[in-house]
Design brief:
Elements: E1 2-7, E2 10-13, E3 18-26, E4 33-39, E5 46-51, E6 58-60, E7 68-73, E8 78-83, E9 92-99, E10 115-116, E11 120-125
Parallel strand pairs: 2-11
Antiparallel strand pairs: 1-3, 3-8, 4-5, 4-9, 5-6, 7-8, 9-10, 9-11
């Protein structure tokens, strides 16, 4: 079992920055890949960013590439999402997820992630 708790969401103006955190507990954090997804009202959940166990392999959605940075601190059992140059279209609930079946491979499909946090809301005003 893995428990995930996100934090760091809030209201920010367009062009601003936020850093989301996701604290994990349960199974050994450093052994599995982690990802961030988001879901805007009326839309399906979509991939944002993910990284493998070491953080050496990362993937980003085209919509956030160059603006968002995913990272992890295995000593703190935490994964981060640094979001810069935020746009109104980034407004969504953001979820972290664990893919405990993968150590090296970084998947973009939400169905491949077996544990999810409760989400944190990000609102970007224009």
């Amino acid at each position: 079992q893995v428990q995930l708790v996100e934090s760091g969401g809030g209201l920010v103006q367009s062009g601003g920055s936020l850093r989301l955190s996701c604290a994990a507990s349960g199974r050994t954090f450093s052994r599995y890949a982690m990802g961030w997804f988001r879901q805007a009202p009326g839309k399906e959940r979509e991939f944002v960013a993910a990284l493998n166990w070491s953080g050496g392999n990362t993937r980003y959605a085209d919509s956030v590439k160059g603006r968002f940075i995913i990272s992890r601190d295995n000593a703190k059992n935490t994964v981060y999402l640094q979001m810069n140059s935020l746009k109104p279209e980034d407004t969504a609930d953001y979820y972290c997820a664990a893919d405990t079946r993968s150590t090296w491979y970084v998947d973009v499909r939400p169905d491949e992630y077996d544990y999810w946090g409760q989400g944190t809301q990000v609102t970007v005003s224009s």
